[in-house]
Amino acid sequence: MASFVLKAPPQPQAAPSFSFDEKTMWRGKAIRPGDQVFLFAAEHHGGCGLYARGVVTEAVRGSGSRVRLSVTLTAIATRPLGRTELRPYRAQPDLALGRLDPSGMDAEAELDHKLYRQATNKIAGVSDAAAAFLEGFF
Q1: pLDDT tens for residues 90-119?
Q2: Rounded to two decimals, what is the model's pTM?
Q3: Is beta strand 49-61 parallel, antiparallel or unpaired with respect to 66-76?
């Protein structure tokens, strides 16, 4: 099972499943049913970062780099993780050098790079180390 992050506008917390239509970056097009996804409520839409984990039940390629997803909620985050918590990892040497491939970075730096380097909402693949780090928030 692969792991992904999804940054989108905040969703109703009581809903057992969600639908999204977002652009993909960093292997995001590879998302498939059965994959794990960590949901981030975009701060630029009034969200607060990581809020849930789910399993993809449907993934349909849209036009260009877009994918429509259906996600069933499996857990709610118990600790905060967002732009504020990840900001200290922005200055890592790999990022300062403009390295486009974040593999080998600390999990925190990888997440900051993929989620907050650009303000856009997105679906992105994450490394096993980043997924293990995110598991600690549930």
Answers
A1: 765 554 444 545 555 688 888 888 888 887
A2: 0.84
A3: antiparallel
Domain that holds residue 17: 3-135
- Copy the structure tokens of residue 5: 């992050």
Total domain count for the chain?
A: 1
CA 96 from chain centre, in angstroms, equals: 22
* Residue-wise burial string across 105-131, b where 16 or more C-beta atoms lie within 10 A, e elsewhere: bebbbbbbbbbbeeeebbbbbbbeebb
24-60 pLDDT per residue, tens: 898 888 899 999 999 999 887 777 889 999 999 999 9
Distance between CA 96 and CA 105 in Å, rounded? 12
